[in-house]
Amino acid sequence: MAAGLSAGALALLPLLAASIGQYWPDMPARSVLAAQVEQESGWRVNARLKTSRELGAGLGQFTKAFNKDGSVRFDAIGEMTAAHPKALRGWSWANAYDPHYQLPAVVLKNRDSYRLIKWASTDYDRLAMMDASHNSGLGSVIQRRRKCANTPGCDPGRWFGHLERSSTQSKVRHAGYGQSFAEITNTHVRNVMVVRRPKYQAYFKEK
User: Fold this and answer.
1) Distance set, CA 197 to CA 18, 64, 65 (Å)
2) Does residue 60 sit within a domain?
3) pLDDT tens, 155-165?
4) Is residue 19 included in any domain, yes or no?
5) Are 127 and 28 in contact (CB under 8 A)?
6) Has residue 181 been placed in a domain?
7) What is the pLDDT of residue 174?
8) Which InterPro entries does the record cross-reference, listed alphabetically (predicted)?
9) C-alpha span between 167 and 68 (Å, rounded)
10) Which one of 37, 51, 55, 71 is separated from 121 by 20 to 30 angstroms, measured CA to CA?
11) What is the pLDDT of residue 192?
12) How would you classify the pairing of strands 48-50 and 72-75?
């Protein structure tokens, strides 16, 4: 059951499993969230990604983004605590990295997106779109869907080969990341759904 799993994953998977059991017990494939945490942070509690305009914190890389004048443009922790005041009561940037908040927040954020993505053809496609939403926002996925629906041969209910190829995000390679924003989202989804997920399926007893 533990084959191929890191020490960090083994230490924190029980907390992730408990969070899913509490907040999303009917999730169709729990391994997806484990793969997403690995993709975001490598199961490192203190994982931190900082650029001149953005700070990503913790297991789920919840982000605070800044405008040129230093004011806050986007605060993921603030948004999550406002949306889920009971479940995430006490979470702030002062304790941003605490896994007892991070992992429930991962579950809740993905659950919220999944419930809004009602147009997917299969659970698998819905989960892939959910992961894309985690990476680049639900609005970006909706824009992909709109573009795909207006493209001959593109099925807006499917991710791979369809919404995957219908990004409206920038195709220009970003100097700070080595990929364009469109490539970053596509790589994120493929890594989570195809590359990383299989190792967690045995842990969650999924076929």
Assistant:
1) 18, 27, 29
2) yes
3) 999 999 999 99
4) yes
5) yes
6) yes
7) 62
8) Lysozyme-like_dom_sf
9) 26
10) 37
11) 98
12) unpaired
Residue 206 falls inside a structural domain: no
Q: How many domains does the chain have?
A: 1
What CATH number should be reported for the domain holding residue 185? 1.10.530.10
Provide CB contacts within 8 A for 18, sequence distance 6+.
none
Contact yes or no for 129/117 (Cβ under 8 A): yes
CB 78 within 8 A of CB 91: no
Q: Which domain holds residue 197?
A: 7-201
Cβ contacts of 117 within 8 Å, gap of 6 or more = 126, 129, 130, 133, 138, 141
Two tokens, residue 41: 């942070």
Handedness of CA 28, 43, 181, 137 (dihedral sign): positive
Asked whether the beta carbons of 41 and 60 are under 8 A apart, the reply is yes
Contacts 24+ apart (CB under 8 A), 188-191: 188/39, 188/131, 188/132, 188/135, 189/128, 189/131, 189/132, 189/135, 189/159, 189/164, 190/160, 191/35, 191/39
* Tens of pLDDT, residues 45-99: 999 988 878 889 999 999 998 888 888 889 999 999 999 999 999 999 999 999 9
Task: With beta carbons less than 8 A apart as the criterion, state whether 2 and 10 touch.
Answer: yes
Q: How confident is the model at residue 168 (pLDDT cuts 50, 70, 90)?
A: confident
The CA-atom distances, in angstroms, between 184 and each of 13, 126, 167 are 26, 19, 11
